[in-house]
Amino acid sequence: MPGTVIVGTQWGDEGKGKVVDLLAEDAEMVVRFQGGNNAGHTIVRDGEEFKFHLIPSGILYPGRTCVIGNGVVVDPSVLIDELESLRRRGIDVGGLRLSANAHLIMPYHVLLDTAGEARLGKLEIGTTKRGIGPCYADKSARLGIRVQDLLDAKILRKKIAAALEPKKQLLRPYERDPRIDLHAMTEEYLRYGHRLEPHITDTSRLCWEALDAGKQVIFEGAQATLLDLDHGTYPFVTSSNPVAGAACVGAGVGPTDIDEVWGVCKAYTTRVGAGPFPTELSDEVGAHMADRGHEVGTTTGRARRCGWLDLVALRYASRLNTLTALAITKLDVLSGLDRLRVAVRYRGAEGAVFDEFPYHQSILHTAEPEYEEVPGFGEDITGARTESELPPEARDYLALISETTGVPIRLVGVGPGRDQVVTMAAAP
Length: 428
Ligand code: GDP
Ligand code: IMO
Ligand code: MG
Description:
With 428 residues, the chain is α/β, with parallel strands linked by helices. The protein contains 13 helices and 20 strands. It has a 10-stranded mixed beta sheet with strand order 9-7-5-2-10-1-11-15-19-20, sandwiched between helices. Helix 3 crosses helix 4 and helix 5 crosses helix 7. The longest helix is centred in the middle third of the chain and has 15 residues. The structure holds guanosine-5'-diphosphate (GDP), 6-O-phosphoryl inosine monophosphate (IMO) and magnesium ion. The site of guanosine-5'-diphosphate has 21 residues, from helix 1 and strand 3.
């Protein structure tokens, strides 16, 4: 299985980092293909916690090639900080490769992200305010600054000036802000270029070479299917395509290089930021999930909204990503709940029944989930390592997910540690 894509199936923070870390053990290369430092991927190894925003989750394996692909938007100051903090912890970061074609988040993108949210007021998206949307907007408008531009002072200055021109009006409140002074910005970004130069290369070619040699390459998704710009709960989405299909574009490989697509799914649902969330709970069960699951955003520290698992949405994610496997995480968080519920269909405001994820925004905003209820389990399962060590109710819950989606479950997370995982018997 040379090319394996790992994607989030919900609204992010499913535990993609942990799953990538587990699968990366046998891989040659790990590649991020979209998003930026809006992502926060956590790995816990021997009780030590690592949080990655830009660097792929394979970096903890010495010598592993870790690629930031062309589809990622890179804030170079964040990347340099992340590299420095890993170095200080004794991690070898020599294997990091950065695409020369990736776009750069500039200080004005961050300011515009914050200003855009303020302008929306009550209608705000709840972005991470990392400049992600404005950076992808410039990329589409062909006003983006790319990693390769950092290596040529004249080009860099010219491109920054061209990118600033149409933003003059919007940036007027920050006119005197030294962060967006043309000269200062050019100098600052040239310094970043100098620091990052040893890592900059043609990463599409690197991926091709590894795949061509039959080596395993893992494509690490950030964000998730329901935050996808095209397929998610627009406009409450991110500005990239986190679905599996985007791995090809964002890494520069062809569709036939992808052999497997793993979907990571929490045993319940969480969402940070605004937007529809049909199975959201505001009762003590939601509080149990938030508390036991430590549901606080890795990047922004915001509380995550919590709710029951939504199988309508998961079926949708399985289809959009053509999932070949599921990794169910945080099953341990559900222990202690008497009854478990999963949404199996929605009912619209006028009583219409939706078995499939509705495409219409207004329907999704008012949809009421219809649940199937199954018995919960009281046991602490954090020590389970095999399927047979899981209580029968937990196994039945997993079977229900797998049967409803038609996708086999390969891994089940029972705690944050890398050893806290149950490998499921391969499906027939
Ligand atoms: P990502 O963005 O998809 O990589 O996920 P995050 O790292 O933002 O959030 C997932 C959180 O859950 C992290 O704090 C992980 O350490 C933790 N985690 C991952 N898998 C499990 C699990 O199976 N059980 C528990 N209790 N925590 C987990
Ligand atoms: P990982 O990779 C959860 C959400 C934000 C907001 C919306 C748009 O850790 O799963 P943006 O800053 O991207 O313009 O914000 O997307 N969001 C995430 N939510 N996990 C993430 O990443 C997210 N990245 C963005 O909260 O609702
Ligand atoms: Mg996260």
